[in-house]
Amino acid sequence: MDLKIAHQCPQCGGPVSLAETDRFFACDYCRVRLYITARGPFHYRLTPNTDGDALVHIPYWRFKGVSYTLRNAQVQHRILDITRIAVPNNHLPYSLGVRPQAVPLTFVTAKTAGSFLTPAILLKDILDGIDKQLTHGEMRADMTRTMKPAENIERAFIGETASVIFLPVLPKGNRLQDGINAAMQYQTGPDTASLIDAAGAAADWSPRFLPALCPACGWDLDGQRESCVFACSNCSRAWMPIKRDLTEVKLGAVYRRMGSSKYIPFWKIRPQVNGVALETYADLIRYANLPKAVIKRWESQEMVFWTPAFKVRPKLFLLLAGMLTLSPPDNIARDRLRLSPAYPVTLPLSEAEESLKTVLAYLVESKRHVFEKLGDITIETKDSELIYLPFNRRGNEFIYEGQNIAVPKAALAHGKNL
Ligand SMILES: [Zn+2]
Ligand SMILES: [Zn+2]
Q1: What is the rounded CA–CA span in Å between residue 290 and residue 284?
Q2: Counting ligands in written order, which one lies closest to the CA of residue 215?
Q3: pLDDT at 331
Q4: What pTM was computed for the model?
Q5: What pLDDT, in 10s, does the model give residues 309-365?
Q6: CA 168 to chain centre
Q7: Whose atoms come closest to the Cα of 234: which ligand?
Q8: Residue 142 pLDDT
C-alpha cells in the first residue's frame, strides 16, 4: 500500500502530492529544494468531509517495513504493511484497511480543528502481537514438523515507515459517525465514552521542510524523493539529516574498471561488539566457523560490517550484507569522488545500525550454540562511511565487478515500495 499525502509547497503554496516515503522535495513550480523531517512519527489524517471542533480523531498506527526475528537458529523475516487501532476499543474498526489509499491524507498540524487521542498502545506491542498470530498460524499449517515453541532471541524492524493516521469521527448521541462517510456509524460503549473524554488538542506534529543547502558551501543539494543522504555536486560532500541539522557523511568509492557502471551505495560500519571477542576479521571467521583457513594478515585486519544503504527485500539485504562483510571490498578511494550515475541512499544509517545483529545472526545461522548466545551481545558503531560500489548492467541485473554479486534490477524497483 503506497500512501499519498496532499500538501502545499511551503515556499510558493503550489499543490503537491507527497509519498509517505518522501524525504526530499523539489518543487515543480518554484524549484525550491527542501528536505522533510519530523520530531517523531509523521501524523496524518483521513481528510474529513466537513471540518470542525466537534470531530474526534482516533489514532491508528501505520507500519510498513521488514520485521526480522532471530529464532530457532534462523533469521526469519516478514514484510509487514499494516494499520492498527492505537487505543483500546472494541467498537471501532481495528484496521483502516484500504481507506488510507482511497481517502486523501493530509498532515495534522497544531491548527487542525477537532480533538485528538494519542496512541495508548505501543507500536512494538502491536507488531509483537501480529508476529505471534502469524507464527502460530504457520505452526498449525505445518503439522508434520515437531516444533517446540521457539524463543525469540531478538527482533529488529528495518526499512520502516511508522506513522500515525487519524480517523475522524463525529459523536452523535450514543453512536459515532464516520467523518468521511456519514452513512457509516460505529456503536459505542463505556470504553468509547472514556476515550472521547481523554481527547485533547492537536500537538505540533507538522513536518519540517528545511532548505536543502550544503552547510559547507551553500550550494543546492541533490537528492531523489526517497533519499536520506543528499549530495553536494559543488564540494563533493554528502549530508544526512539528524534532528534539525545536516551531518556530514564520510564518503568513499571503489572506482569502476570498465565502461558503463552504476554506483550503488553501501554502509560500512566499524563496530564495537560487546559480549564476545569480535575485533578482527580472523575473529569473525572463527566465530562464524566459516570454511576458510585464517591467514595471518586477518589477525590484524579489523572486522567491519557492510550493509546495503538502500531498501531492498529481506533475503537480498541479508545476502548482500553477508557477502560484503565476509569479503570486504578494498581499494576504496576517498578523494575527489565523481559518482554518476548513483543509486539514491534510501536506508538511513540508523536502520543499517539496527540491522547489524541480524546480519551477524545470518552469518552464524545453523550454528545453534553460537546463535543462541546472540541475545547477550550488543553492537555499537565506532564510525561509519558510505561507500559506493560500481555495478555493471548485464541483462536484468547489476553485477558488482569485484565479486560477482548480482542485484536484480527489479529488486531495486521493488525496494522503493518497501
Ligand atoms: Zn514551490
Ligand atoms: Zn558543498
Answers
A1: 8
A2: 2
A3: 87
A4: 0.90
A5: 999 999 999 999 999 999 999 889 888 777 777 899 999 999 999 999 999 999 998
A6: 27
A7: 2
A8: 55
Ligand nearest to the CA of 248: 2
Taking the CA of 209 as reference, the closest ligand is 1
Q: How many residues does the chain have?
A: 418
Mean pLDDT in residue range 240-255: 91
* Domain assignments of the chain as residue spans, ordered by start: 38-208, 250-415
**Cα–Cα distances in Å, from 141 out to 16, 68, 136, 146, 318?**
46, 21, 9, 12, 26
| Peptide bond connecting 341 to the previous residue in cis, omega within 30 degrees of 0 | yes
Q: What is the tally of helices (H) and strands (E) in the chain?
A: 9, 22
The C-alpha cell that represents 113 in the structure block: 480543528
SS3 at position 376: helix
Distance (Å) from CA 32 to ligand 2 centroid: 17
pLDDT given for residue 57 in this prediction: 97
Distance CA 265, CA 224 (A): 14
What is the CA(265)–ligand 1 centre distance, in A? 30
Q: What pLDDT does residue 173 have? A: 85
